[in-house]
Each structure stands twice: as C-alpha cells, then as structure tokens.
# Entry
Amino acid sequence: MIDTNARRTQFAEQPRLLLLLPSITYRASAFVDAARRLDTLLTVASDRASALAGHQPSGLLTLDFDDPDRAAEQARTFADEFPLTAVFGVDDNTTLVAAAVAAELCLPSVPVRAARVARDKQLQRSTLAECGLPVPGFTAHDIAEPAEVVAQSAPYPCVIKPVALSASRGVMRADSAEEFVRMHARLARILAAPDVQSRRSSSQCTVERRYLVERFIPGPEVALEGLLVDGELHVLALFDKPDPLDGPFFEETIYITPSRLPADTRQSITQCVKRAAHAMGLDRGPVHAELRVNEGGVWMIELAARPIGGRCSDALRFGETGAISLEEVLLGHALGRVPPVPAREQCASGVMMIPTPAAGVLREVRFVEEARRVPGVTDLVITAHIGQRLVPLPEGSRYLGFIFARSRTPAEVETALRRAHEALIVTIDAEC
Ligand code: ADP
Ligand code: CA
# Structure
C-alpha cells in the first residue's frame, strides 16, 4: 500500500498534465513527445480501459468521453491521489470533456459552455449569427423529417452537414431538390453507422440526429491556426487551401502557409476569428478556424476549439531554429509556461492530406521513395495499412497518408506536394 500523502509530497513540485487522447488518433506521439520536452509528469486519459493501467496507475486513466460530467467525476477521484496542474483535450470531443474536468478541478480552461458551442455546429451557427458575424444562412433539422419537405425550402446550391461529425464526414453539396433527397438518404445511412451510433449517450443522442442545411458559400477557403492567451488571439499560421472545395464532397487536400492572400484580406480573416472566438466565449487555448473569402467578404465556416487535426501539425515548426512543435507550444501554454507564443519558422511550409481515391481494400502504395525524393518534400507517411478497408468521403474520414514540403515560397511548396502525390501509385481492390 503506497502512502498517498507521501506520494503527494513527492510530486508536489512537478506539474502533472492530464492529456485526453481519443483511442483513434494520429497524434498521440507528438503530444507525448511535447510533454516529455516540457518536463511534466504525464497522465494519458482515453475512453478505453488499458490493460497496462494497473501497472501504471498515475500514467493511464480511463474516462467516459461520451459523458463529460461523469468524466469530471472520474478525474476528480484520480486527482485526489495525483494532483493535476493542467488538462488538455486534443480534438473536438475531448476538448469538451477537458473543459468539464477543468471546471470540476478549478483548473484553467475554456468555459464548458464555450467548448459546447464550438463542438455543436448548430449552436455555433446561431451564436455567431446572433452576434452579427458573417455565417451562411442555415436551418437545422432532425434526420427523421421527410427529406422532400426540407428539400422544398433549401437554398440552392446548399450544403447539408451533420451537427456533430467532423473531418468533412457527411458534408455534401446539393444543387437541386432531387440531389438533396439523394444526399439526405446518404446522410441518414452515415448517421446510422455503428461508430456514430456507439457515440450516442444521454448527453449526445439528439445531437447525433441533427443536421444543418446551409447556403453554399463560394470562394477560396483558408484555415487559421491560433492560440488564445487571456482572450488575445495569436495567429500561429494562416493556411491557403489551393485546391478548390466546390463539392459535392469537401475533401481536404493541400494546406500551405504563409497565405498568398493580400495583407488586408489576411487582416479581415484574423479579425473575423477574433470576433467569433469572443462571441463563443473562447478565451484561451487552441483554435482552428475555416473561412471562405469572396466578394461578399470573409465568411466563418467553422471555428473549432482544438488544434489542426491529423498529422498536419508536423507542417508547423516554431522558434528561431524551428525546433519547437505546435504541440509543445500548446501544452506549454496549458501548463502556464511563458513565453507561450514563439513565431513560426521563416520558410514556406505545406502538407497534403493524401485523398482516398476509391473504396476498397488497400493492396499497395508504390513509388513512396521516389515521391520522398521530390525536391522540397521533407516527409511522406502512409498512415493507412496494407489490407485496410478504405472508405472515401462522405462516408469515411481517414486519409491515406500525409506529404510534407518546405521551401522558400508557397508556390514551390505547392509544386513539391503535387509532384510527390503524382509520383505515387495506389492499388486498391474494389470490394464485391
Ligand atoms: P467538419 O467539422 O466536418 O469539418 P465543416 O462545417 O467544417 O465540417 O465543413 C467541412 C467543409 O465543407 C468545409 O471546410 C468547407 O470546405 C465545406 N463547407 C461546409 N459548409 C459550407 C458552406 N456553407 N459553404 C461552402 N462550403 C462549406
Ligand atoms: Ca471543418
């Protein structure tokens, strides 16, 4: 039996970070490395019990990610024995749980309400619209409403999107009522998928049934990666998305920073994110915002209270020598370290999320080495494994892999990413 008081005293000096990691994530190692570099004690919480938890009671914790209030109670029991300095969630869902845990333990965090607004697309749209922010006109529906009726009042072209999914899963454009009805049937099947259904809990079951119908906003899209410190927005990077995202599905491909948009447009984008964060009650921590730009101005598509997803954060390096990762910047801020916001390195940088070209079983990816040797390419990882069943958008949400490039200019980065992608030959066996 270990004496709890002795343990408390032993760790009193060293901070302990509770990191909430979903069991399916590309990013565990980047966060764990960052915690190590920040010299903090680390507890990794996930929603599945680990066989190793018994051997490492302070290092691993199981929390109910589907029920933030229950997770907060579980974290309280843990923190009574192992006091926590900070809590950090890495994606949309865990950000909400982290906020609930932080509120329970009086740790610094965004308010639970703000995390909820960021997580729920309907609540976010209405919150931003009420504050006069430029968002697409929208209506909200339950998937059980007859599609033909909703189709009659939809503004065409429109976008139909589930309230609670992410990574563009289930997001579709419809140009006519007939197309709407087809897309709606597709969305109903996605919402009935086992992994969506299994996320249902007392707190989420109505969310999972809802979807939005929005006016389609044309124009180029950008992503802003930021960190809120005491209510102040620090722009970590502004990415252009040079491939047009006109639908019918919205597959992310290339992100390149710095943006090639004019300075005044970049300024308007930053202003829009600042106002949106303020309207939503977000005052600290990471934000990942997606916006569209056209002759009508800058439009907020989504503001998430989390960092960029997938492996994409590897495209961002900070500090004079580029030795600091995005995860280190974010966890450093969560732990109250100063200075929290170093500048991004000087060069242009980009990432391509390699699209899933077809449904089926992945058999082979050839010419990976050749693609890696394309000038400017710094890394290429195939994250799907051979034999894996691949599901393209709108049903799926995982990428084949990621290509990274750095160079003097954004144009050179874009060329490198495209050339590397063209070099790859992907073999997929169609399923019967
Ligand atoms: P998710 O959380 O799944 O990423 P988003 O609302 O960000 O959902 O939608 C995914 C993508 O779909 C956006 O990045 C954008 O390209 C496109 N999209 C979503 N809503 C609209 C809209 N109203 N007009 C134009 N494009 C949209
Ligand atoms: Ca998005």
User: Anything to note?
Assistant: The chain has a mean pLDDT of 92. The first strand starts at residue 16 and ends at 20.
